[in-house]
Specification:
Length: about 60
């Protein structure tokens, strides 16, 4: 997975400054954030839902 992120970041990262071609440039940290943020949301979704259910259920007891 990390290799894919690094490869994708290398493919999009380019030269900076006035001599750049004006195309879309994505830095490696942006690629990591675009992949990492949704991945973390998926990983932690179930524990958060379980905690919310337990918390809401505690009011009923």
């Amino acid at each position: 997975m990390l290799e894919v992120v690094i490869t994708a970041g290398g493919a999009f990262a380019g030269a900076h400054g006035a001599d750049s071609s004006g195309g879309v440039q994505i830095e490696l940290w942006q690629v990591i954030n675009l992949i990492g943020a949704p991945l973390l949301a998926v990983v932690f979704a179930r524990p958060v839902i379980d905690d919310l259910k337990a918390w809401l259920g505690s009011d009923r007891k």
